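Suppose a classmate hands you a notebook page containing two proteins, each written out with its sequence and a corresponding row of structure tokens. How would you begin to make sense of it? This section walks through that situation. The first entry is reproduced here exactly as it would appear on such a page.
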Amino acid sequence: MIDFLNIRKNRAMQQDPDMNIGDAAYVVIDTELTGLNENKDSIVSIGAVKMIGGSIELGQSFYKLINPETALTAQSVVIHEITPSDVSEKPHVSSVLSGFLEFCRTDIMVGFCVSIDMSFLTRAAKRSLGTVIRNQVLDIFPLYEWIRNRENRKKQQGVSLPHQYSLYDIAKFYDIDISSTHNALVDAYITAQIFQRFIPYFIEAGITSVGDLMKLSGRLKGGERQTVSRGIYNF
């Protein structure tokens, strides 16, 4: 049996930089948290959905509730509606993370303000499993800003991308259903649908390979912490 977590410790988990972004493997992720303080809060649930290029693999999803390492707060319960009784008999994050990392494999991780999710996941992986998450990561938030700024420069008639950058504001613009939110799997699926809409923009702009997309992502400033203060990211 392959020790997948041990492999992770020894090499980067990356897609071929020459692969077309329409053929690459992605895993779109989301977490629900007890709060946003990395020193005091912890993960309550993890959701993820697979994509191959712009195709969402509906049969390839991951969702687990977790018995958090820190107590649920009244504020967090109001947001994601996960109560202490919902998680009291659920597994510890260490056993959930093992399955989650196997699900992700070498896929490019995609999320909205994803550095927040990744900071909690990385911390938990180091503490619980002694491993490092080495997957390439893309953040929907700065990619949306890039698309919005590009469309504004082109001054196309009828294009009016929203100035508000919350996940749900962007989803509304693309006519994506948000009738059910603040569930890690549902929000991952919403994020996947947004990313699905982005891929034609990148290709039309000449960003066609995984390497091109990662270079673009590396040049952008995510502003994840600012999104928290502006109320764009909810846990």
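The notebook's second entry, a different protein, reads as follows.
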Amino acid sequence: MNSQMVTITNFDIVGEEAMVAFGRQLSKSLPWPLIITLQGDLGVGKTTLSRGVLQGLGHKGAVKSPTYTLVEPYTLDIGMVYHFDLYRLVDAEELDYMGFTDYLEDAALCLIEWPERGEGFLPTADVSISIMHENDGRRVTVQAYSANGEKLVTQIVKGISA
């Protein structure tokens, strides 16, 4: 992760439907190409948020966690979207063996769960989203690390304020 933080914004979200709706809101503002990392404990809502983003981009089918496949590709109107789950990586070097950089070259959007498992092989994310349990809901912290990331955060704040 880049040590130069551009923008940080926090959101409080209660319930699965609200997390999906937040993902849909994100999808309305995505500049291309974009790498988003998703961090948080098991079951905190990373895949639920990804489902909202993918549905907001027009995906009609199921969105499952790519825990066992490592990556789920989606061909959408905006281009290729890759949803990664690195939880089962034994060594970050496995990303090199699976041709991770080829995915990045082809992607309009990469959603990467458990990015810490790929540390040293992942490029700097445009946006990092951290999800934590808080009271009856979740605290979602969005950090921007690039101009595209900052655009996204600014648009989310505008969209939620409107």
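A careful reader of the second entry would note: Helices lie at 16-27, 46-56, 94-97, 100-106, 147-161.
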